[in-house]
Every structure is written in structure tokens, then in C-alpha cells.
Amino acid sequence: MTTLNRITAALALTLAATLPMGAAAQGKEALKLGVVTSQTGVFQAFGEDLLRGVQFAVDEANANGGVAGRPVQVQIADDEGTPDAGRRAAERLANGGHNLLIGPISSAVSLAIAPNLERWDAIYVATNSKSDRINGDACKARMFRTIQSDAMDLAIVRPWLEKEKEKRFGIIAGDYVWGRGAAEAFTKAATSLGRKVEVTVYPPLGTKDFAPYISQLKTAGTEGVFVALTGRDQIAFVKQAEEFGLSKSVRIIGLNYLLEFALKATGTSMEGAWGNINYNASIQTARNQQFVDAWRKKYNRDPSEMEGGAYTGATTIFQGVQKAGSVKPADVAKALRGASLETVFGTVTMRAQDNQLQIPNYFGIAKLVNGQLRSSVTQTFDTKTVTVPASADCKL
Apex CA 289: angle with CA 123 and CA 67, to 5°? Predict the structure, then answer.
């Protein structure tokens, strides 16, 4: 059985989980969570972490009597990493009653889900999708985001970049919504500091041979390369960038690049790479310490960035149900909008203007720690620094 299948099976068993008698005796309507994630396709590695983070939150809640006395039940659907498959997966879950939706890695999948939430009578919490369109022109009253947006990530790249010496950059980004949005945002940040972007390349999803793109980046005379690739594409690029000498000759700065799965899959090839870090076990809050301690007890390791993000998304839905006193999606959406929430980042706010969780952000480097490559936080940026104004295009 594969790792992903084991996680899926464990979550499926949650449907029949036995709650403490006090919760079961109350006979309250169950909280039905629908997890839309990549069980196949280019984002499959992320899907494993997302499911594990959700499972941990569900198990924790049920072990403590459920959410406000309600058992948490789960169904999972594979988005295959594509918008059409993701929309169909979400629709199946919502129509089957699991209409408190959480999940997709891909921003394109999130954007395909969003317009249908009212029709499905569902809400959706995006735990990993980062496109600015999610809380911009595509925002919806029933869609919430609990991870930093691209704009929030780029808000910390600029202050980091202005202290660095590199003047000429290349960009390699996936040829889809998130990749192109990230490339455009980095270009804006770099040029505002008087830096020059010499070349931008967009390999399609599923690219296996990055040699032509690496050649363009090398021959352009760049001093730094900004990378916005993910999943198997990122792993292939990292290995080939080392093979063809790119990572040793220029500074690598990646967006959502220093993820645990990539560090593990590429040996020491990412050593010295820089990037934003959206979640880290070292975050100094009481709630995070409780989470990390419990996670270490169960898994004998720290939670990954993706696992921490999924846990945050699930517990956000749980708090929405608690505040609403209901599992009806419309009630939960109303309760979450503008709410103060307890998270691994501390007490934070779900901004009412665009349903974006206002959380801090971090920057760091991949370095060897006790013989293993880890993402290490070098700078913390508070919520005030990270916050970007709500988009005028968002009309809730």
C-alpha cells in the first residue's frame, strides 16, 4: 500500500470513528468535511502532506469529543491536479453532503471550485492555493484562504531582496495561473528596486527535460534565478539545475520552494537556496508548541509546511462551526467572515473584505542541520509587514 493510500484509508476510517460517549449521546449533526486534493497527478506529493495534516486535526477533534459535540466525518476526492477534475470532485463531495470543503494545492483548481459554491450550498477553505485572484477578482463570500497569498509572499521577498547584492535575474515559473502570477509579481518587486529581469521562461506542467530552460537562464548572464515550480516539476528542475551547474553559479530564490518533500527528494541539491517559509515548527506561539509536541509524539518528526497549513485550514473550519453553532455552510461562512481565530500563528483575523487570513510570514535558507537538509527561518515578518490591501476587484 502506498503512503497516500494509507493516509486515505486512515481518513476513511474516521467516518466510523467512535467518539467519547458524551459527544455521541448529544446526537448532534455531524460536521462533514470534504477534502479535495491531489491523489494523482503532478501535485501528488503535496496531496500526501495535505491529507496527513487534515487527518491530524480530525483525529484531535474527535478524540476531544468532536467540534462543539459534533463528530467530524470525512470524504476525500481526487482533483488529479487539474481544474476540471477538481471541480467535479468538489461537486461530488458537496452533493453527497460533505459540503464543508477544504484542500486543493493548485490555484487553478480553487478558481474552478469558487463560482459553484452557492449552487452547491458549500463553503471552501483554501489551505495551499496562493493565486491573488482567489481574494481578488475571483473572490466569493463562501471561499476563505488560510495560507499566505502570492502578494503576501512577495511582500517579504522585496525587503529581503533590497539587502542583497544581485542585480540581474532570470525567472523560471510553471505555465499556469500560480506560476505566471508569481513571475509577474517578482518582476514588479525586482524592477521597483532597480533590478533587471533578463529572461523569463514558462515550462509547461509535467516538464521532464529542463535543460533548454536552464540553458536560457545561464546564457542570459543572470546573477540570481527566481523559481516558481512545484511538485515533480520542482524536483526535476532542482536535480537538473545542479547537474548543469546553475545552482552553483547563481543565487536561487524560490517561491514556496523550501518544502519538506522537495528537500527530502533532492538530497543536498537545494543546499543554500533561499525562499519564503509559510509555516515552520519553530514558530513561537503556545498553540504551535502544543501542535508540534503532539505531532512529534505521533510521527517522531516535525510537521512539514504543507501539513501545518492543512491543519490550520481544518481547525479554521472547526472554529467556524463552533462560532456559528451550526454546520450549515451559509452559517459557517457568516461566522468566519471577520472572525478572530486561534491558530498556530497566534490569534489572527479572517479579513472581512476578502476572506484572507491575516498571518505573519517567514524567510529563510535550506541548510544542513544534524546531517539533514532543513528549511531554517532567518527572518520573521509580522502581520503588519505582510499585509497587503484588500483588492478593489473583490466584491463580497
Answer: 35
Type of residue found at 355:
N
- Find where cell 489551505 sits: 127
- Give the CA count within 13 Å in the CB-facing half-sphere of 158: 20
Reading the block at residue 13, the C-alpha cell is 476510517
Q: Is the pLDDT of residue 2 over 80?
A: no
Q: Which three cell numbers stand for residue 351?
A: 479579513
Secondary structure class of 339 (helix, strand, coil) = coil
My answer on whether 28 and 144 are in the same domain is yes
Q: What is the SS3 assignment for 305-320?
A: HHHHHHHHHHHHHHHH
Task: Provide the residue range defining the domain that includes 336.
Answer: 3-148+283-358
Q: Domain check: are 319 and 371 in the same one?
A: no
CB neighbour list of residue 22: distance below 8 Å, 6 or more residues apart: 65, 69
Residues 340-363 pLDDT 10s: 999 999 999 999 999 999 999 999
Strands 251-254 and 224-228 come out as parallel
Beta-carbon neighbour count of residue 228 at 10 Å?
25
Query: How many Å from the N-terminal Cα to the C-terminal Cα in the chain?
Result: 44
Q: Is 394 a domain residue? A: no
Q: Do residues 155 and 141 both lie within one domain?
A: no
3-class secondary structure, 327: coil
**Backbone phi and psi for residue 12, each to the nearest 5 degrees, phi listed first:** -60, -35
Burial 120-155 (b: 16+ CB within 10 A, else e): bebbbbbbbbbbbbbbbebbbebbbbbbbbbbbbbb
CATH number of 206's domain: 3.40.50.2300
| Dihedral angle, C-alpha 294, 299, 303, 306, nearest 10 ° | -120
Tell me whether strands 372-381 and 361-369 are parallel, antiparallel or unpaired. Answer: antiparallel
C-alpha cell at 65: 469529543
Average confidence score pLDDT of the chain: 91
- Cell numbers for 3: 503512503
Q: What is the DSSP letter of 376?
A: E
Backbone angles phi, psi at 182, to 5 degrees: -65, -45
Q: Distance between CA 210 and CA 241 in Å, rounded?
A: 8
- What confidence tier does 22 reach under pLDDT thresholds 50, 70, 90? very low
